[in-house]
């Protein structure tokens, strides 16, 4: 494995962990070497999009210990998404056990500490069983896969430019935007691919009702720094990010005030720093937002230098994840070999 050239992409590893929900109960967790599955072509996950997923990471620490970052929060969020779809989901204990097992069964794919990379863990629940009627599936498949990854989009040391979405929306008010389900991502993937071909790292979405307030990026939350304030949108269409929640706590620990509120688009011009945050990217500093429709660009900070607060929060969070900084909030679960 060439650890220096890891990207955010699929790598075949040893096993995936699976469990089948049927007749009101989950089967025992099972390891499978083949990551292909066999389900009915008429499964609701295929034609009605009945599926939910998560993303979390494991790290090999400075002390040699394996750390899994805040897995119980991911378990709770998966259940929230599954409940929204009306399908079964594993309890927290089963979720975490599956994550620990997939790490240990694929341990040689966990990057060494010195490469500052991680193992990405993808739990998902899909509705299975043949149906054409519009009802919640009575069967579900829970799967957890793991693979080594590098950066998803850009680097903490290279502020990025992003594209403002003005010709389409990601999620509707009171819709499914705050749930981690496949359809929310499907609606933004093509626009994101197109934007990257034009040199942008991500797409920034506004509220779909008025296009006046900032919601989030295509696959990550939005935050901004102004003075001693950490500002992030309060929107019913935004995914409750575990990374953003962690950054808010670290910002508060450092003496900053937290403003979780509606954020008007024109405030972009007043911010000293802006970042995208999420499991895959941790923090991606943003120095420019292009509004092509209105032929306007918002410039934030220095395009060549990451802002002081973004860098501090990034180092603090990754320091906890890699065992370099004391984990005062007990966020990391140590996975014993």
What does this structure look like?
- It is a single chain.
- With 337 residues, the chain is α+β, with helices and mostly antiparallel strands.
- The chain has two domains: 3-149, Aminotransferase class 4, branched-chain amino acid transferase, N-terminal domain (D-amino Acid Aminotransferase, Chain A, domain 1); 160-321, D-amino Acid Aminotransferase, subunit A, domain 2 (D-amino Acid Aminotransferase, Chain A, domain 2).
- The protein is 22% helix and 29% strand.
- It has six helices and 18 strands.
- The strands form two sheets. Strands 1, 2, 3, 4, 5, 6, 7, 8 and 18 form a nine-stranded antiparallel β-sheet that branches. Strands 9, 10, 11, 12, 13, 14, 15, 16 and 17 form a nine-stranded mixed β-sheet that branches.
- Helix 5 crosses helix 6 (308-321).
- The radius of gyration is 20 Å and the shape is globular.
- The two termini are 21 Å apart.
- The relative contact order is 0.16.
- The model has no long low-confidence stretch (mean pLDDT 95).
Total domains:
2
SSE order, as H and E?
EEEHEEEHHEEEHEEEEHEEEEHE
- Gyration radius over CA: 20 Å
Oligomer: single chain
- Provide a count of the helices: 6
Relative helix content: 10-25%
β content, as a range? 25-35%
Overall geometric form: globular
Poorly predicted tracts of residues:
none
Mean pLDDT: 95
Distance between the termini: 21 Å
Task: Return the CATH topology of the largest domain.
Answer: D-amino Acid Aminotransferase, Chain A, domain 2
Q: Name the CATH superfamily assignment of the largest domain.
A: D-amino Acid Aminotransferase, subunit A, domain 2
Question: What structural category do the secondary elements indicate?
Answer: alpha+beta
The CATH class of the largest domain turns out to be Alpha Beta
């Amino acid at each position: 494995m060439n650890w220096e050239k890891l990207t955010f992409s699929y790598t075949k590893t040893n096993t995936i962990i699976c469990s089948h929900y049927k007749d009101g109960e989950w089967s025992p967790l099972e390891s499978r070497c083949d990551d292909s599955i066999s389900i009915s072509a008429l499964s609701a996950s295929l034609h009605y999009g009945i599926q939910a997923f998560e993303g979390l990471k494991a790290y090999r620490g400075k002390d040699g210990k394996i750390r899994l970052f805040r897995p119980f929060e991911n378990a709770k969020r998966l259940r929230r998404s599954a409940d929204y779809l009306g399908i079964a989901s594993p309890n927290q204990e089963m979720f975490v056990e599956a994550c620990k097992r997939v790490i240990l069964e694929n341990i040689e794919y966990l990057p060494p500490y010195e490469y500052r990379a991680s193992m990405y863990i993808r739990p998902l629940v899909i509705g299975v069983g043949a149906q054409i009627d519009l009802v919640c599936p009575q069967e579900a498949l829970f799967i957890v896969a793991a693979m080594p990854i590098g950066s998803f989009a850009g680097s903490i040391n290279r502020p990025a430019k992003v594209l403002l979405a003005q010709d389409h929306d990601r999620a509707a008010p009171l819709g499914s935007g705050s749930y981690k389900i496949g359809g929310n991502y499907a609606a933004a993937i093509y626009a994101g691919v197109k934007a990257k071909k034009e040199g942008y790292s991500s797409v920034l979405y506004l509220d779909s009702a008025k296009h006046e307030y900032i919601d989030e990026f295509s696959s990550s939350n939005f935050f901004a720094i102004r003075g001693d304030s950490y500002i992030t949108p309060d929107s019913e269409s935004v995914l409750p990010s575990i990374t953003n929640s962690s950054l808010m706590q670290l910002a508060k620990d450092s003496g900053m005030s937290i403003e979780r509120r509606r954020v008007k688009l024109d405030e972009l011009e007043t911010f000293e720093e802006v970042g995208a945050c999420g499991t895959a990217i941790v923090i991606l500093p943003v120095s420019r937002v292009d509004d092509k429709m209105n032929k306007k660009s918002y410039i934030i900070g220095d395009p060549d230098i990451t802002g002081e607060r973004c860098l501090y929060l990034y180092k603090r969070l990754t320091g906890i994840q890699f065992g370099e900084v004391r984990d005062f909030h007990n966020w990391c679960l140590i996975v014993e070999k």
